[in-house]
Amino acid sequence: MSLFGIKDKELDGIVNSVRVDLSNNYKDNAVENIQKLKQRLEERKEAGTIKDKVYEHYGKLLREFENDVKDFKRTY
After folding, report:
1. How far apart are CA 30 and CA 6, in angstroms?
2. Which of 12, 29, 55, 57 is deepest in the core (most CB within 10 A)?
3. DSSP secondary structure code for residue 70 in this structure
4. Which residues contact 28 (CB under 8 A, 6 or more apart)?
5. Which residues contact 6 (CB under 8 A, 6 or more apart)?
6. What tens digit of pLDDT does each residue of 10-43 get?
7. Rounded to whole angstroms, how far apart are CA atoms 76 and 72?
8. Angle, nearest 10°, between helix axes 9-23 and 52-68?
């Protein structure tokens, strides 16, 4: 995610995992990785180790991902 100079290796890795999971219709995995992204964002925000601009960028991606899987229900 080097758009606009925003880059975070750890968060980019999680975002990439979510995108791969969604593109392959692995929704269970996507939901788990979305939760992981949400958790890491909050942990880093609380610790003060993430800039506001970066937090907002990944927060926007998180909301988009959550919207993509909002109606997902496990069938087992």
Report:
1. 23
2. 57
3. T
4. 74
5. 53, 54, 57
6. 999 999 999 999 999 999 999 999 999 999 999 9
7. 12
8. 10
